[in-house]
Amino acid sequence: MKKKVNRVVLVGTGFVGSSYAFALLNQGVTEELVLIDLNKEKSEGDAMDLNHGLPFAPSRTRIWFGDYSECKDADIVVLTAGANQKPGETRLDLVEKNTRIFKGIVDQVMASGFDGIFLIATNPVDILTYATWKFSGLPKERVIGSGTILDTARLRYELGEYFNVDTRNVHAYIIGEHGDTELPVWSHANIGAKPLAEALEQKEDYKQEDLEEIFVNVRDAAYQIIQRKGATFYGIAMGLVRITKAILQDENCILTVSALLEGQYGHEDIYIGVPCIVNRQGIREIVELNLNEEEKQKFSHSVEVLKKTMKPVLESIK
Fold it and tell me: What's the mean pLDDT in 151-175?
């Protein structure tokens, strides 16, 4: 009898997908990794290249180029395929073309008999996660978007640099759309065990107004990186590995992923970035933070922007 092992299927081996595969191998998170892409030669080359690194990996991983039939036995299907964000283009500008691409991909995955967890990273990630949920028919807890996990990481990095504290000891969240309407939850930010407001009082050169500049750097980071190197991929790849690990190792870890709201934060029928407890079943529950009035207003604005953008597109492809 064949022993059950963890299998991850990656659809899309572009910049983000190949970086994810490399990070996954380096951390030894899964036993099997299947690569799927329209560019067969490139993906076969990726599989060969990754396999040649196995002697230096922390654990054994079987890696190969495959097809959608192999999604049947997958625990997680990770979607990074789609058109890339170009200089000057917002994530929401990508919505129509990538939604159409996703319809074809999800249909093929589900035709295999797949019954695992979808993890989506392609932009606009909140809308494409909602579309994947609709297209797949899977329970909401098993369709997860990368949400604001990268934005949250960027915020923690910037705050760590500002306060000269290891970024892993900074506890703060970005919620909302993974894009221009996202917002920092300053009311729940902590530097180590100290609330942010208390940390600001430690030195004279720490100023409240500096927080706005930090947030702008976080919000606009993708534009700055795209302008310099054409795409962002290392940070989001590591964020995807973190989510994958939380799922496969049943961690019950709190991560800011894109999840379906059903009344939480006063909204429903929308996928958006919020703190969630993630485990082997997917999203165990949404962590509902007690936002202040300003944060509530900004979050509601983010919800409305997403809903307005996705409505005509989803109606046109039914």
Answer: 96
